[in-house]
Amino acid sequence: MAGHRVIERAVVAVLCVMLSASCAVGPQQAAASAPAPGIAWTSCDPPAAGLECGTLSVPLDWNRPDGERIDLAVLRHLASRPQERIGSMFLNPGGPGQSGVQVVRDGADGFDVWGGGRFDVIGWDPRGTNASSPVECFPTEQERAQFWDGVSIPSTTEQSQAYERRTVELARRCGEVSGNLLPHISTADTARDLDVLRQAVGDEKLTYVGLSYGTMIGQTYASMFPDRVRAMMLDGIIDPVRTTAGAEERTANDVAYADEVFGKFLELCAAAGPARCALAGHDEPVDQRAARVFAEAQRAPIPAPDADPPGELSHGDLLLSTFTPLRLPETWPQFAADLEAAANGDASALETAARQMSTPEAFAASTTSSAISCLDGPAQRPVADWPAVIDDLSGSSMLWGPVLGWWLWAPCASGWPAQSTDRYTGPWDATTENPILLVNARYDPATGYGNARAVEQRLGNAVLLTMDGYGHPSYQDPSACLEQARTRYLVDLATPPPGTVCAPDGVPFP
User: Fold this and answer.
1) What is the pLDDT confidence band of residue 421, given thresholds at 50, 70 and 90?
2) ∠ CA(464), CA(468), CA(474), 5° rounding?
3) pLDDT tier at 242 (50, 70, 90 boundaries)?
4) Residue 251, pLDDT score
5) Separation of alpha carbons 245 and 425, rounded Å
6) Which of 426, 482, 490, 485 is nearest to 458 (CA)?
7) Which of 186, 201, 169 is nearest to 36 (CA)?
8) Is the per-residue pLDDT at 255 higher than 90?
9) Nearest Cα residue to 233 out of 119, 90, 108, 125
10) Does some domain include residue 101?
């Protein structure tokens, strides 16, 4: 489906779904935003048909509305059916930290289809990210590259101790370079920004699509401003209770579903047979063949002679290499072929994939995610406790526990140099005029189905639409049933009957 392909290219760069109660702000405490000025829309650079760009000035500190200000980068794709225009549809693709401007720029036509062509589709870079006063931890890109040069997910005790020291140094540097910004980039701050953006485009109520971490922004907005929601579709659901409970609880939840999806990948591979899945058709069962690759990498690195440059696949790199394919079921045949090559002694493809996840740019993105989520739910244990914490997270997920433990928990636990007095920690049971539509794949490795069930039961009048397939978010496994339900909701405010299940159009091993 054309719309799906455009959106997939726009969002496939998502790194991860990231995300104690102190100074909780309830809905009754969410001050009404001051009237917002309009956005001066201009042509984008480079210009593109139907796209307009602009900025909106907002307070750095919402408790000091007349103080220092920052600019939010905004982009809109004009409705393709302007004579039937309903209003604006705001979209956040997740992260935390992914660029809403870039995702709407790249996937505008597909998102236009979601709204039946009747909305201006608007993406923005949330505060602290990309073109909206981004978090910086190094004065120059050269210093950032030197800091992260050769770093990957630790595979040994010695590497883990070195990574611990590195996260402490990272926290110090982030405080030195961005200390004025860091306390003011919580999800609650972004929800307040979103309310001003809504006013700036002249919409009486908000129409919003949140993907992955964007569902956290949506639930926060609905909790703070329940009477300002027209329609809200959330796909790939974050559980805000576990997200704000603390960095350890949040990370355990973020990784809790990955191993189940990997198990389904292996199960479907075995059923597909050797003609469709390279791991199948051997004397040893598929699951045992895959387990042998992980066991061998844990004992010693696997050669990667055709990587550029040639090298070896460590156990940490092997874990990293699973991160993208588990989210994209259409890549499962190639992922199986790469694992099969590693089983035969050549891990070049897996090592190449891992290197793409451990560039300085990738580490910078994970630092931005940490900067936001450390405010929403601070760490409860110091980074010196990493042996026990990483072990606990590995118990939640063999695959992703160590990865997100080091990427996202460790910076929060390393003396993170900021706290928020404005973070929102509940309640999370808002009732909106029209029901919120929740969408989740049954086998989503990053925002598991259990999250969606919990949020459905908690919100006052949400409806959960289940996509009985794979991937993160749900549109990674295309479904005509889901596409029709999505548009009907956003345009006509009609939710599917409770308990509706949509089937995908295809299978992961076609």
Assistant:
1) confident
2) 70
3) very high
4) 98
5) 8
6) 426
7) 201
8) yes
9) 90
10) yes
The answer on 206 and 109 residing in a single domain is yes
Q: Do residues 342 and 407 share a domain?
A: yes
Structure confidence at residue 76 (pLDDT)? 97
Q: Do 50 and 97 lie in a common domain? A: yes
Q: State both tokens at 262.
A: 């990997």
Radius of gyration of the CA atoms of the chain, in A: 22
Whether residues 72 and 38 share a domain: the answer is yes
User: What is the model's pTM?
Assistant: 0.93
Q: What are phi and psi of 150, to 5 degrees?
A: 75, 5
pLDDT of residue 27: 30
212 and 308 housed in the same domain: no
CATH number of domain containing 237: 3.40.50.1820
Burial readout 217-244 (b: 16 or more C-beta within 10 A, e: otherwise): bbbbbbbbbbebbbbbbbbbbbbbbbbb
Chain mean position to CA 239:
13
Residues 400 and 444 in one domain: no
Judged against a pLDDT cut of 60, whether residue 17 lies above it is answered with no
Q: Is residue 202 part of a domain?
A: yes
Domain count along the chain: 2
Lookup: tokens for 483 = 């596409």
**13-43 as b/e: b if 16+ CB within 10 A:** bbbbbbbbeeeebebeebeebeebeebebee
Nearest to 87 by CA among 231, 187, 185: 231
> Which value, to the nearest 10 degrees, does the dihedral of the CA atoms of residues 217, 183, 98, 382 take?
-100
Name the residue with tokens 């302007």.
Answer: 82
pLDDT at 22 over 90: no
**CA neighbor of 164 nearest in space, from 412, 399, 371, 406:** 406
Q: Which of 507, 3, 432, 411 has the alpha carbon at shortest distance from 174?
A: 411
Torsion of CA 148, 151, 154, 159, to 10 degrees: -90
User: Alpha-carbon distance 311 to 173, whole Å?
Assistant: 31
Q: Does residue 26 sit within a domain?
A: yes
Nearest to 184 by CA among 92, 70, 56, 32: 70
Phi first, then psi: give them for residue 123, nearest 5 degrees: -115, 150
- Record the tokens describing residue 281, joined without a space: 């058709």
In a domain, 510, yes or no: no
Q: How far is CA 7 from the centre of its chain?
A: 15
| Res 388: pLDDT | 98
| Structure token digits, residue 124 | 């923005």
Domain that holds residue 343: 136-174+251-376+379-415
Average pLDDT over residues 342-355: 97
> b/e for 249-258, b at 16 or more Cβ within 10 A?
bbbbbbbbbb
Q: Region 346-373: what's the mean pLDDT? A: 95
Are 146 and 129 in a shared domain? no
Q: Are residues 340 and 447 in the same domain?
A: no
